[in-house]
Amino acid sequence: MVAAMAATTLVWVAAETGIDRALLMQLAWPEKHPRSDLLMLLRVWGSLWTWILIALAVGVQKRSHQGRISDGPRSVGITLVLAPMMAGGIAELLKLLIRRERPSGLEIYLFRAWSEQPWSTKGLGLPSSHSAVAFAGSMTLFLLYPRLALPALLIAMGCGVTRVASGAHYPSDVVVGAVVGGVTAALAAPPLLSTLNKFHGEREGSLRSGRYQR
Q: What is the pTM of this model?
């Protein structure tokens, strides 16, 4: 509730002061966007495919207890996918409810009418789904491996900057997406991991006892 109120206040202040569009103009790339491996890396941090690959890499590792949460590799891998997926889904749902369009050449925000494409998020920008996924994944990494907190946060922030610089989002889109992603992961990742650990533990015990043997 506090996070939602803070995000709402931020959007209102950004609209009233004009800082949203001012930052967008300052950060925007030239008409021809620069291309580099680093920028692509930052952008795809907000892609669910990235977290699927990270989850697969973690899942094949041997069991480790070096993280803050005692966990198994399969449980960690699944959590690293589910938390960003949930955040991205919530961001898409909020887009349908808020209906604010992506930046245009006008000095005002544009909102899509409910009668126009009521179930499509194409062209809608608040909040940024890339930002939500990026920060949810980074928050999950922080909860699992605290030493990765700083690099994960910096990459997530870089992802947000690329979304503004490309002209795809207002800064407020990215900030609200970051709040959605961070809060979703903080609330969902620990219980998800605990449930998955319990499930895998019970199933492994059943397999050892022969209950699942044919």
A: 0.83
